[in-house]
Amino acid sequence: FPLAVFPLSCVVQNYAWGKVGSESEVAKLVASGDPLIQIQPDQPYAELWMGTHPRGDALIRDNRIPQKTLGQWIADNPACLGAKVKDAFQGHLPFLFKVLSVNTALSVQAHPNKELAAKLHAQFPEHYPDANHKPEMAIALTCFEGLCGFRPVEEIVSFLQNVPELRALIGEVAAEQLERSGSDDPRGVSAALRVCFTRLMKSEKKFFVDQLNMLVKRISQEAAEGKDTSGSNGDLLLRLHSQYPGDIGCFTIYFLNLVRLEPGEAMFLGANEPHAYLHGDCVEIMACSDNTVRAGLTPKFIDVLTLCEMLNYTPAPSSSKIFPAAQSQLDPHVYLYDPPVPDFTIMRIEIPASIKLYLVSAMDSASILLVIQGTAVGTSTAAASEMSLHRGSVLFISANESISLHLSSSDGMLLFRACCLL
């Protein structure tokens, strides 16, 4: 098939937790890059899906392929994925590439490994619709906040001693067990942590709502009096309670790390890693799955028992949750985020203003290219014509195809490229 590089019109998802109108990076990118989508100023724009998901299959924007989606085109031309990717993932694009704009917290959750995913899908297909794992990676576009992984035990113990409402939910026996657990016994620490977190999440609803209301009232009074509420994580507690009043997820801030990412920094969320997105804009990539086990800060189905059973209870500092990018040895303008899963890799491409011609190199994987900043004209022997690229443009690039960028912006370009490096 002669056409193997083409622009895409992607799918916007309007979820209540998204940012409204012009505040949303999703909306800004779409407004700049996709004339087929009209942005409404009062709608919450949460996600831009760039891929072949059945609920959000991108549309090919080329008059030689009228009204065909990316998923349909790949099904007809599976060789475009690259030989290794096609064979490893049965002719399907193995990832979904996204932009997220998060205004309110996005569920305390974790994703199963393949073994657990298959089991959950067999038992509860209405809640776990496929048998695949769902590792994810988020790379900040703006300052980004999330919860990720269990805090160091000394931090959790400090909260147990400073937040009596939390201690009441955990119970004295479990709290003392965690306080006595020594750093020289990782298994003992994990076991004590599991007991404490499970007791919290399985608390009887009236009891935890009463304790949460007492905590919110106490912190609100202390804040009004000008007191320091950091020992109770007061600012974050009040913010989450205002978004999800009476939700058990508000208490998870005492167990999970608060991770703050600067633009370009990333979090990798492997199997069984507890996490929640709190605020900010990011690009995200995930394996193709809809399997999410939730337990709080969400109106969706929650599965507390499964979550508490599956989690990785290894405590670690928040700094360890920032996933490093490695500068490519082949191209100093490329930074690789290459996690320990086969499904996806992301490249951040920073082209300085001094460069006027840049080659987006060929690789043995189909890829999706997103323009965050800058303008260029793209040319390729595999494209129907020259392509005008600017903020919000999205291109599909078949395996073993390259694109020449003729830059025209005075501030260079920032691109993200999602692919599969097997």
What can you tell me about this protein's structure?
The protein folds into 3 domains: 1-151 and 255-349, Sandwich (Jelly Rolls), CATH 2.60.120.10; 153-252, Orthogonal Bundle (Phosphomannose Isomerase, domain 2), CATH 1.10.441; 350-419, Jelly Rolls, CATH 2.60.120.10. Helices cover 26% and strands 29% of the residues. The protein is built from 11 helices and 27 strands. Helix 6 packs antiparallel against helix 9, helix 7 (172-180) runs antiparallel to helix 8 and helix 8 runs antiparallel to helix 11 (304-310). The protein is elongated. One of its GO terms (biological process) is GDP-mannose biosynthetic process.
CATH C-level category of the largest domain = Mainly Beta
Low-pLDDT sequence parts? none
Global structural class: alpha+beta
CATH topology of the largest domain: Jelly Rolls
Multimeric organization: single chain
Largest sheet: 11 strands, antiparallel
State which percent range the strand residues make up. Answer: 25-35%
Query: What is the count of β-strands?
Result: 27
Number of spatially distinct domains: 3
Q: CATH-wise, what's the superfamily of the largest domain?
A: Jelly Rolls
Report the CATH architecture of the largest domain: Sandwich
Number of helical elements: 11
Give a nutshell description of this structure.
Zn(2+) binds at residues 109, 111, 136, 275. By secondary structure, the chain is of the alpha+beta class.
